[in-house]
Amino acid sequence: MSLQARVEDAPEERGGFFIGAADSDGVSAEEEEDHHQQNHQLLLHKANALASQNRLTEAISWFSAARRHGPVRPEQLSTFLVCILRNFKTKAAGPDALSGRARGISADDAFECPNCRGFLGEAVTVACGHTYCKRCLQRRLFSTCRLCPEAVGGEEKTNVLLCGLLDKWFPEELNTCRSLYKVDELCRRKRFQEAVSLATDAIRSDSETTVAVRLSRAEAYMALKQYSLALEDAEFCAKSSCSAEALFRKAMVLHEMGRVDESLHVFLHCLAVDEDFPCAKRQVEKILCDLLSPDENVMVGLRETTQNTSPLLRSKTLVASSQAQPQSPVQRQHQARAVSSPHHLDNEEKRWESQERPGLSRAHSLRMHSSSCGEEGLKRVFSAPQLGDQEKGCLLKRKLSVSDIEPYIIDCGSTKHKKGLTKGFKKQAAKAKTSRGVPEHLLDPNDMECSLCMRLFYEPVTTPCGHTFCKNCLERCLDHTPQCPLCKESLKEYLASRKYMVTTVLDTLIKQYLSQEYAERTKAHLEETRELSDLTKNVPIFVCTMAYPTVPCPLHVFEPRYRLMIRRCMDTGTQQFGMCINDPQKGFADYGCMLVIRSIHFLPDGRSVVDTVGGKRFRVLSRGMKDGYSTADIEHLEDNRVEDNDELEKLQELHDEVYGQARVWFQNLKIRFHNQILQHFGPMPEREADIQATPNGPACCWWLLAVLPIDPRYQLSVLSMTSLRERLVKIQHILTYLQSIPNN
Q: Which stretches make up the RING-type domain (predicted)?
């Protein structure tokens, strides 16, 4: 029987459970346990399927049934949470209404952290090239970059250059940020009373940092069990900035106070502002897990609330109960109970997680007042898809948009803050933003010089250790050793990832404030690139082996000079270089063949396997050297065309004769040699109808020249020929000699 047929009815309790209610006689304990686990998994799959279809009322029943057969972990409710959040955002007039995703960086906000929109402070550049304040990264407030889809993680090391510039340009703001970091450090060390004192002094001395400092002070207040003061600070921050961090902090305080329904709504508001907030996601999943506990009173109340109660009535009942109903003894007990301080953890994210644990069991708290706001709040959040059009219309009248939800989410709890505070904060933020600019007398182009090339940064990249270099300069250093040129820290992982992303903030500052110097630097770079892209002047020469037109030539590139050469060929767009064999007197031979790069496979240590194929032949006119590798001025070679019809007919006959002779020789080779040739050079090219179609003649001649066991000097002499007849005669002589040798 299919799963759909087996789980069609509601999973109510019966004499035996509705799935697999088999006679237990003759069944071992192990088999019974396996059967129990299978039922549990089936129930979870069904519940998630219903949740993904937005049938949340039914999903609740199935999750409840699953909990009767085994534990339901919070992370297993992720699909359920996604649907709830989608409905919440739909009520909030669409995702864009609450979305707090950061905008692209411009010159006006180059000094702002893309996450908290505060001053960068101790700036940290992540792998994707975007820069955040160290506080946001330490608190693990997001897992993907705000400006691109790259994951954010790893050790937080400050950008040495950028921190030096900020200290020079904005010393007062940087000192204020350092005071904030001291508050956070005191909290990490559990010295909460000192943190409160320092934060209070900072608020009095600089009102522009009120939000960030108050968030840290709220955290300290909560650890000291002073929940009313913590809520006051959290509500101020939520009103002033409506940032995800402020909403999360407020939700945590409400949850610690036992106001679970309110905290759930604020957690959802936090996720509506920022879906990528891991701490808030885990907390909502835990709350939902407790709400879906197997307590029958809770589940019956939840179902009846969703199915039988008018949404408008639910709204009125909820607001009235939240505003007028006195706290239950359990809530008062929860608010008065002491919350043990979190254990010391090296990982900042674990420290946040430790603060997510309430002083009273959530499940117990919810069951004690299940008939009041807990179930109402949950159903009010996600019951909209189950309603008729008329009921939806009533519910949408009080949709949970930013403007409509704030009187409930932010003002509830007897807040003392007024709307004027929000306006005042916005004015202060606008003033700070418009007045923050680099002082002209402090601008110095020398501050933006690469320590390797001693020129203005061009495509600046920042290493994981925090040092900044031009992209090309750093790549050249890594060709020799996988270490930072300044601090000698290992960059093996950085080299293996090959993500040399431009540091956006520095690039923006250079273009904005050093536009003239940047234009000159760009002009010099373009001139260098133009010189490298000429295919007849200063052509890079790889001195290694023989290469032939149309014949593949795979290369293992490991020397630093050739790694640089290959990279330049790719950067300039030519994707070509010359290949010559060694010459003891001249350095390399007078004739060679151009190789066209088809693909490159980079190895973790910087080496690469380059797949190339032969192109045009050339003759060397003059030799040179650039950055360790050879260069040459060259002229390309082409076969002399045969115009006389009789001569062309004789040439075609010679070609057909040589081609037939070559095919016989190749087919008579031992199987081992035959397979090796196929593996390295591919099959023998097909006979060409027009033997003068290309400047290099038939491809079969070059394939034969590559596979025939002859001296490279002899091969070089054939490569340099511009007469197809002479080349065919030479190859015919070689084949005749090889076929005369007995096959041993």
A: 113-148, 450-488
